[in-house]
Each structure stands twice: as structure tokens, then as C-alpha cells.
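Incident review: delayed structure delivery

Summary: a single-chain prediction request sat in the queue longer than the usual turnaround. Root cause was a stuck worker, restarted by the on-call engineer. No data loss occurred. The affected request and its eventual output are reproduced below so the record is complete for anyone auditing the incident later.

Affected input:
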Amino acid sequence: MYGYQKLRIPGVIAFHSSSSKIRVLSANNRGGKSTRGAWEMVCFATGYHPIRKEHYPTPNICWAVALDRKNYGHIVQERLREWLPKGTIWKEGSQCFLLPQQYGGSKIYIKSAEPGETKFAAEGVIAAWFDEGRADMEKPFMETLARLNPRWGAVSAFITMSPEDGVGGWTWPKFYDPNSTERYKDAEVFYFDIYECSTERGGHLTPEAIENFRNQFPEWKWPAKLYGRPGTMSSNPFFRPDYIDRMETRLDTPRRVRIEEDSLGNLKVEDDELGDIVILRPPAQGHRYIMPADMGGGVSRDYTVASILDVEDKAEVAYFKSNTMDVETATVRKIIPLGRLYNRAIAIPETNGEHGAMHLSMLRQRKYRPIYRSQKWSTVAKRYYEEYGWRTTEKGSRDMVHDAWGSALYANEWTLSKDALDEARLISEDQGRPDHPKGRHDDHFFTVGIGLAAISMKPKMGQRPKHVSMPVWAGEDAYQYAV
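Output delivered after worker restart:
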């Protein structure tokens, strides 16, 4: 039943030889990784692993988990059938394979990552195979780890996947990133690529087939599709990667600094390799600057980011980014001095929630001028009223941020920081709408987007449509709107 000679493709042996509790076989599409996962699963169910020379008690329980039953479940079943011993019975009602008594009557249950009934609250298992590691697999994987039954000795949870979610997926911090604090300590990742599957190296794909497969995908998808390595983009990017690449060709050289203020209020900029303020271009006399800011929750939570955008040069020229201080400290010691350095940049605080409200309050208490305002139409009072800052909870305001980013990338007129562009790479499309991956930050991306959206909203003279939000863009008359 083992037929291991069919699996001898370079780059795979180490995966089957490892006894680690958590293993990931990270490989290209069409490389046969599901076949390898099925073979490993059957070894546990039958009670013997011919590569590791390990014996397991039978009968035992194994789980084979697919993304869904309709589209992927049958693939998992078919791969298992290739290796299951004669006499194995498929039990439709319980969705499991029942092995013959020769192998103790072990069971392999087919499960899916689809939401719904509680499918993973069952008796302990000796091994679980997850075919693919997309976002829906995270919760089932974590639940399964808690149900691996140590009484069987060598328990295992293993994933066969193509890392199409890139560094934005849940698997990146859990398995791939060696510097991640979330990484499973007992996890090992094994790789093989499509070229190891070539007939010239004993594999099953001809060089022509490999070439045709490669040409189906843009270059940014090659790391996952061809080499089984996480790429720098999400699997379904909201913004065109080539537009981001194009903007990255003209990045400014970053300089980390700290800004000190003396007793007379004079500012002094000093280099600091550990500084949380980054200067890309020095302030220029006569230039207009805006300073959007998105306040995080403090230490070890979301980042607080304030960005300086040069309206004349269409460039992000400086930013502050940190998650090590509270709102008051960040506003007084970092953001206000940064805004003062850049010709008293127009502050555009994102005012959602208590953090944004506190930031706005601190700006006003410290008499920082000017602050972005907008005029809104009150359907109750039937008149306009003024509101400070940018409120992203309003209908359409988040869409405006993403649209502003898209316009900036398409027009290719702006120069933005690498940190902001790196976050933009991770924004993916989810049912037609943009979203950032779970566990990843988009604070810098969103802060810059607020500034870009505010600039794009500059009204023409004499225009004042009724019943809609109307920005008071501070343009040449910026300081007239200061409070």
C-alpha cells in the first residue's frame, strides 16, 4: 500500500522523514503536494510509517481537512483512495474511511473548514492533514492542535499548501517568519518547487508544461505558484502590484531622527537609529504640508501613525510610527513637533473613537494650528455645521481612502514611503472590497490614504452642493480655518 517510489521527488524526503509535531509542506501548484499529504495520512491510520520506521497503535482516529466539501473535499478523498489498503470502506453518513481490521479498523474523517456546525469538537486524534492553508483553515487548525491525543505518542498536524496569501496570510507569522513571536516553536517548513517536478529530474512535468504553467501568472505570483515560497503580495491584491513597483523605483532615502524642543520652543533634529520619526525630505520654505494621523491604542496594540504630505511636490516627506506610547505622549512629544517642523502642517486627525477624540483634544489644548475641518449638512436642523478631523465611520469615507490610493498609484505622480507601500501590497480584495490580512497592520497605509483623500476633495470655488459633506480644504487659505 505504501508505494513510496511514486513520491521520490527531490525536496520532499525531508518532510516525510521529520517527526516534528507540526509540519508544513510548502510547494508549487501541480507539484503533487496533496498526494504527499494523503500518503502521510494513510501511514498514521495504518499504524506504520516506512520512512521513519515508526509504529502507531491502532485503531486510531485521523482527520483530513479540506477548504470545503463540494469543491475540495472530493480531491482529498481521491488522493486518499490512491493509498488506502484494499478493503477500506467509505461511510457516507459519517464522512469517513473505515480501514479493514488488518489495520485495526482505524478511521479517517473528512472534514471541512466551512463555518457551521461544530465539526472539530470530537475525540482526540493521532494526526490531522490540512490540504491548503488559506484563511479559513486557521481556526480549525488551532482547534485541532488542542485535540491531538498524546496517548498515541507521535501525534502530528501537517499542512500541504501553496502559500498564495504571501506574508499577509495567517501562516506567515505562525510558520514561515523566523522572527515572529507567534511562530510555533515545534513547527518545521519544507519546500519544493515546480522545477524539481521536471521529467529531467525524475518528476512528472515536462519542461514545456512547466513553461506553459509559468506563463499563466504575473511575475509577482511566481514565488507561491512556482517555488512554494510566500510572496510579498496578498493572493488577491486590491492594487496592481506593478503600479506599486513603479512607485518604489523613486523612493527617498529614509533618515531616522528624534526632534527635541528647548525651553524657548526651538526645534532641533538629531539623527537617531532607534528613532520613531522618519524624515524622507527636509522641510522646504513656502511649501504646504498636511499631517493626517491615525491614533492606535497604545503599547503593543495598533500603531499610531502621523504622516507629512507635501502638497506641492506630491510626496510623503516624513512620518511618525510607534505602538509604544499612549495618545497624549505621542501627540505632545512627537506629532506636534513634527507638524511644527513642516511649516505647521495642517493636522487631519482621524477622529473615530476615544483615541482620535483625545488626539484632537490635545491638538486644541496645545493650540496647534491649523486643524482640518469639514462642513456637514444636518438633516434635522436643515443647516450646515462644522466638524473637525476625518471620520472614517461615515458612509463612503473608507472607500474614498482606498480610491485615493488607487488614483495616486494609477497617476504615478506621488512618491510615498516604502513602509506605506509595503502595507498597500497586503491589501487584498474580499468580495469586491478591500481588506487587510488578519494579524497585519494597515495603519500607515490608512493614514496616508486619509491625506490623499482630503487633497482630492478640494472643492472648486462657488460649489456647495446641498445635503452632502463639504470639505473646508485649507489650501491657500489654510490658516484662516485654524482654531
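Verification: The CA atoms of residues 367 and 402 lie 31 Å apart.
Action items: add queue-age alerting; document worker restart procedure.
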